[in-house]
């Protein structure tokens, strides 16, 4: 049976940057926020271990004097275009978060998700040992918006892929969505050793930001961000990350209410329990056990743990007995980008590959509704 490998990873973020200090001041300035909520906001933002986050919302551009700049998004002029229009998400003159409908939020997703997905895909293809003409499958992942024909079709047309490329969309699965996509890519490569699969995760989490005194919404508003990542999976050549094992674990039914993601009238509604870090600390060892690396987790050289938040990384590190060095890539991505949902684990793997050496192993894991713990064991081939 042919081995499947991640032969290239590309990432992209939108051009507008919101420093955490600015996010805190915005959330605190909203009308109707009482003292208890103010304390929760300050604690959540200040304790997030995040420096800044990226957003597609041009109305936030002034928080750093304009666009921070990210080539390939194709939307640098949007702030100018929106300058004469009434604000939809954020009124900079009053520092007020507005209340767009779910439809308005999704309209922005329709406009903004494709350029970001294309930027990540082009970045991956630019460093890949295969060409766009060789791509046989396209798998898209997103839980922050919907439309059809969607990003899968836009990727085929925008990248000049073959019109008979097989397309699959994995929707609304949450932060662990990259793993079902990788599993489908592995299946395609095992069925056809000539297959080349383009996986693209794109999430625009900040479209669902709102003012609230609800602790779940406060946590969400303090950590989530926008981004896209692409991975190219193939059986050849022998380079990149060999996918040795993938595993999915579902916690007991009592955990289902700890993390939920639903469609509301004012955007998508996240319920994220403060018990989640403790739950994952209890579950992660058993969830990863089927990967069976044959030795202690602490001896695995590299780790990519989805940074759902600082406490999740802290608890996971403690449960698995990992060093600060092993958690450094995960913490760096959290610090520089925040939690971008499904693309985040690919951002971490891309960072790991910058310094990993051939023969070293990597464990990646992410979490989502269910509560679901997805994981993978990889071996570096042809690293630096």
From TrEMBL:
It comes from the Bacteria. SUPFAM superfamilies: Thiolase-like. The keyword Transferase applies. One of its GO terms (biological process) is polyketide biosynthetic process. It holds the Pfam family Chal_sti_synt_C. The active site is at residue 175. The keyword Secreted does not apply. Residues 253-376 form the Chalcone/stilbene synthase C-terminal domain. Keywords: Transferase. GO terms for molecular function: acyltransferase activity, transferring groups other than amino-acyl groups. Residues 99-237 form the Chalcone/stilbene synthase N-terminal domain. InterPro entries: Chalcone/stilbene_synt_C, Chalcone/stilbene_synt_N, Polyketide_synthase_type-III, Thiolase-like. Belongs to the thiolase-like superfamily. Chalcone/stilbene synthases family. PANTHER family: HYDROXYMETHYLGLUTARYL-COA SYNTHASE, TYPE III POLYKETIDE SYNTHASE A. This is Type III polyketide synthase. It comes from Gryllotalpicola protaetiae. The lineage of its organism: Bacteria, Bacillati, Actinomycetota, Actinomycetes, Micrococcales.
């Amino acid at each position: 049976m042919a081995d499947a490998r991640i032969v290239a990873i590309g990432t992209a973020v939108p051009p507008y940057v919101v420093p955490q200090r600015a996010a805190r001041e915005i959330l605190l300035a909203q009308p109707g926020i009482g003292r208890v909520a103010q304390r929760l906001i300050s604690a959540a933002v200040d304790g997030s271990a995040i420096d800044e986050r990226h957003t597609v919302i041009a109305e936030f551009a002034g928080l750093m004097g304009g666009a921070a700049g990210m080539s390939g998004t194709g939307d640098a002029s949007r702030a100018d275009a929106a300058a004469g229009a009434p604000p939809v998400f954020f009124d900079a003159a009053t520092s007020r978060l507005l209340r767009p409908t779910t439809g308005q939020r999704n309209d922005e997703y329709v406009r903004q998700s494709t350029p970001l997905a294309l930027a990540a895909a082009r970045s991956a293809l630019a460093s890949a040992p295969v060409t766009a003409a060789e791509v046989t499958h396209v798998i898209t992942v997103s839980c922050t918006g919907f439309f059809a024909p969607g990003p899968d079709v836009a990727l085929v047309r925008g990248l000049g892929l073959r019109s008979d490329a097989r397309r699959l969309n994995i929707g609304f699965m949450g932060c662990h969505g990259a793993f079902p996509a990788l599993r489908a890519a592995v299946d395609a490569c095992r069925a056809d050793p000539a297959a080349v699969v383009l996986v693209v995760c794109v999430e625009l989490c900040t479209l669902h930001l709102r003012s609230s005194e609800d602790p779940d919404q406060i946590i969400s508003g303090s950590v989530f961000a926008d981004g896209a990542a692409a991975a190219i999976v193939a059986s050849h050549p022998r380079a990149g990350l060999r996918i040795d094992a993938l595993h999915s674990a579902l916690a007991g039914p009592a955990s289902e209410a700890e993390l939920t993601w639903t469609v509301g009238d004012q955007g998508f509604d996240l319920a994220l329990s403060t018990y989640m870090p403790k739950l994952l600390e209890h579950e992660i060892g058993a969830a990863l056990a089927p990967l069976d690396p044959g030795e202690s987790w602490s001896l695995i050289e590299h780790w990519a743990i989805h940074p759902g938040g600082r406490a999740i990384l802290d608890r996971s590190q403690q449960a698995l007995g990992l060093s600060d060095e092993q958690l450094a890539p995960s913490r760096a991505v959290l610090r520089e980008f925040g939690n971008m949902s499904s693309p985040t684990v690919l951002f971490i793997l891309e960072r790991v590959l910058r310094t990993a050496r051939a023969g070293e192993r990597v464990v990646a894991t992410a979490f989502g509704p269910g509560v679901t713990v997805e994981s993978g064991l990889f071996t570096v081939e042809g690293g630096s």
